[in-house]
Every structure is written in C-alpha cells, then in structure tokens.
Amino acid sequence: MPAADPDTGRREPVAGLTDEVVSAAVAGDQRAIGVLFEVLHPRLSRYLGLMVGRDAEDVASDTWIEVMRSLPRFVGGADTIGAWVVGIGRNRALTHFRRAQSRPRVVADTGVFADVLAADSDTYGSVEEAMGTADALARIASLPREQAEAVFLRSVVGLDAISTADVLGKRPGAVRTACHRGLKKLETQLEAETGAGNTAERAGAGPQRPTGVGNRSTTTSAGET
C-alpha cells in the first residue's frame, strides 16, 4: 500500500506520472492515455471500493467515460490530474447513492476489498498478500467516514493534502487533522490487538512449575518412608 507523500505544504505529482505524459494524454496520445489509466485506475478503484463496495468497478467505468469526455479540456499537470480524476469518481459515487436513494457510507468489509483487488491481481504475488492488503483497507474503512476518506486518499491513493482537500471540498488543515486522527486511531487499535495477543499467548502457556520441585518432593517422601 503506497505511503502518503511527505506533507510539504505544496502539490505533489502522482507517482508514475509526469507533466509530459499528462500533456500528451490531453492532446489525445493513446499511449499516454494508457499510462494515465494504468497509474490511476487501481487507486481510483480502491477508493471507490471504500465508497460503494462491490459496485466500485461499475462506478469506475462511468468515471472513466466522463474523464475521457472531459480530458481534452483539462488544464493542469501531474500534480493535479490525480485529484481531478478521483474527484470525478467521488461525484459519480455520490450520484450512485442518489439513484439508489441511500445515504453515502464507507464500506468496511475485507471481502469487498478482496473483490476490488482481484481486478488488479498482477500487483500481488499471492492470495495471502492480496488478502493482507484487503484487510488493511478494511481497517482504514472502519474509521469514521471523514477520517477514512482522508487516510484513504492520502495513504492509498497517494494524493497530497492540498489535492485531498480539493477532492473532499475541505481545507488542507482539516484534511491533515482528520488523517492524523485516523492514523493514530489505527495505531491504537493495532497496539491493543498486539497486547491482547501476547496476553492470550502467555495465558495459553499456563503456569510454569519451578525446575526440580517435583523430583525433590518425590525423593523426600521416599526417604521418609
């Protein structure tokens, strides 16, 4: 899972993209558009997995249709196109909820993320690795929605704080705060689970009898007899 860019206070290009590639994609170069899709689609799908669960691929398809329709009018570079594409995806997800007449919510289900990751199977060397990633994504999704989206966009999608703020319609400071609180909550959960596991392991081992106690008792009794 890619780590978030250092919080430099400025926009950062999405890893794997350059201004030249983005400019070529805007101009209609098919190879550059392919690079754009290859870099951004897995990130978009994971984020949409958070938003709409197993409908992520359908919403992603709608997103890319809109992206391709609007791409010739895009103004920006490698440091803004990630937020632009994910922002379109988020709007499509919210439209999905309106059509279903349901309230937007984050999805915290390992099975859902496993399904989403299956479409990107080339990234993983084993089922265990993919399931480990799915579990990590589900843990993030279990956070309060504001924190979950902020951590997801920063840590999984790889957007900087300013770009994340653009997607969520918030101030960068609010994004940094939500991300920090979410990560601290995850850290606390993991520490609690680790502590509980160690306690259970010690309890399972049972009390240890001092070495030689049983032998001494047997010897003494034999002597007294």
SSE topology:
Blueprint lengths: L18 H8 L3 H23 L3 H15 L10 H20 L9 H9 L8 H15 L3 H12 L4 H8 L3 H34 L7 H12 L1
Helix pairs in contact: 1-2, 2-3, 2-4, 2-5, 2-7, 3-4, 4-8, 5-6, 7-8, 7-9, 8-9
Describe the protein.
This protein is an all-alpha fold and 225 residues long. The chain has three domains: 13-103, Rna Polymerase Sigma Factor, Chain: A (Orthogonal Bundle), CATH 1.10.1740; 109-141, no CATH class; 143-203, Winged helix-like DNA-binding domain superfamily/Winged helix DNA-binding domain (Arc Repressor Mutant, subunit A), CATH 1.10.10. Helices cover 69% and strands 0% of the residues. The chain contains ten helices and no strands. The chain has helices at 19-26, 30-52, 56-70, 81-100, 110-118, 127-141, 145-156, 161-168, 172-205, 213-224. The longest helix is centred in the last third of the chain and has 34 residues, at 172-205. The radius of gyration is 25 Å and the shape is globular. Residues 1-5 and 212-225 have low confidence and may be disordered.
Can you tell me the CATH superfamily of the largest domain?
A: RNA polymerase sigma factor, region 2, helix turn helix motif
Radius of gyration: 25 Å
What is the structural class?
mainly alpha
Which stretches of 5+ consecutive residues score pLDDT under 50? 1-5, 212-225
Helix content: 55-70%
CATH architecture classification name of the largest domain: Orthogonal Bundle
| Number of individual domains | 3
